[in-house]
Amino acid sequence: MFQRREAPRVGKEPTAIRTIGTLMRHTEPMGMCGRIRTAELELLAPSTRSNATRLRQLLHPEFLEIGRSGQRWTREDMIESFSAGDRQPAPETDEWDFTALTAHLVLVTYRIRVRATPNSRYRHSRHTAVWDTSSGQPRLRFHQGTPVLPSSI
To answer: Are 113 and 122 in contact (CB under 8 A)?
Structure first.
């Protein structure tokens, strides 16, 4: 069954669950969509990116990333890259959307806003992720980020 869920906004609004032909509301802020959103945000945090043990818990063993440049990254590639990278603050996120693809796969889309320096303009990118929930804990299976042109914002 196809379902679409929109993330709760800071726990103040109920989450919308869409199934074919119906729209329902529920107030479970830390349901699976909330847990996936929390895990996705954790992956954006510098403290998580520098923790190889935690990254192995969050990234599925068959994880694949398609980077902004088009380069393919595996789980081990990402862990190595994060451990060698700089520690930038976590970016701002919005426009979260959740769609159940199967009983245990959830498609997540969201937008990131980040500044290179405090006085520079925001750069935006759209992100797509597929989360596997078959183990009971969300694990990121696929991720792709796409830059958004300033004229498209």
So the answer is: yes
**Longest Cα pair distance anywhere in the chain, in angstroms?**
48
Question: C-alpha distances in angstroms, 2 versus 29, 35, 75, 102?
Answer: 21, 20, 28, 7
Helix ranges (DSSP H) in 1-153? 32-44, 46-49, 52-58, 75-84
Which secondary structure element, helix H or strand E, spans residue 3, and what is its range?
Answer: strand 3-6
Q: How do residues 63-95 score in pLDDT, each as one tens digit?
A: 999 988 889 999 999 999 988 766 777 899 999
Query: Hey, is 34 helix, strand or coil?
Result: helix
Instruction: Give the span between the Cα atoms of 68 and 94, in whole angstroms.
Output: 19
* Contacts of residue 111, Cβ cutoff 8 Å, sequence gap at least 6: 93, 94, 95, 124, 125, 126, 127, 148
| Residue 121 token pair | 């303009």
- pLDDT tens string 140-152: 999 999 999 877 6
Q: Is the pTM of this model over 0.85?
A: no
